[in-house]
Hints:
This protein is α/β, with parallel strands linked by helices. The protein contains seven helices and eight strands; from the N terminus they run E-H-H-E-E-E-E-H-E-H-E-H-E-H-H. It has helices at 9-22, 31-38, 81-84, 117-136, 184-196, 210-213, 237-253, and strands at residues 2-7, 40-43, 50-53, 57-61, 69-74, 93-96, 141-145, 201-204. A hairpin with a 7-residue loop joins strand 4 and strand 5 (69-74). The longest helix is centred in the middle third of the chain and has 20 residues, at 117-136. It is globular and about 45 Å long.
Amino acid sequence: RTLWLLGNSVNREQYFSLRRLLRYDSSEVKPEQQKEECGKGSRDASGAKETCFGPCACSVVLPHGLNASVSFVFQPGLTGIGTRLASARAGDIALVSGGTLGLRLNREKPSDKPLDWRAQLQAEAREARQQLVTIAQRGVHVAWLAATPLCAARDHLGGLVNSTTNTSTAGAGCHDGAFGTPGCIEEANALIHAEMTHEHVRFLQAERHLTSIFPAKAHRQEGWCLPVYRDHVHLAVDASDAVALWNVEAACKGSM
């Protein structure tokens, strides 16, 4: 059996969490080591497309006679999922995320007509759902992982960004489809959730449970969600461990 994780650097860290926990290894792999072993995500010059540099995938065989492995594959956006999970077999678990969800900036479309990022995201989500359903029908346990909320110090409107809803205290709604714009991650997650609704595809939002997982730690320090986050989007080790295990358990049990 293989436990698959598809997504960006946030999911790559969850891969290392699971690898360490399932191998009973107490050593922590630092971000730079993770990038060297599994690759790193980036965006093109316009910021409109996500790509990957380096190996862009990694895998480890679990010990102790488990006859199982954990694999991570970079998944930029919502397209190409079927190709990346072509070798997934019955009994495998696939936890899939769209990275930064392929959000585009309207102003980056060189035409008079602005890009309708919502319509594009919905169309891509429907295509992704069909691919995931096909994979699930092969006997693979499939779950879609909502994008991790940002934990920015302050948004461009001058308000603090809420770590669990990604909404601004100074304004609401996503106007341009930009990854860092307050409200965009939450709205994109909601749009994808609506399109992903299917009996074979579970939609998981583990980060919403961070305050219950770390009730004494989930607070802000100088505008940052420390110590649950280690930067604006990546979780600290303990939080990454907890989210990774929650995702696996929810995917296996069918929890929403």
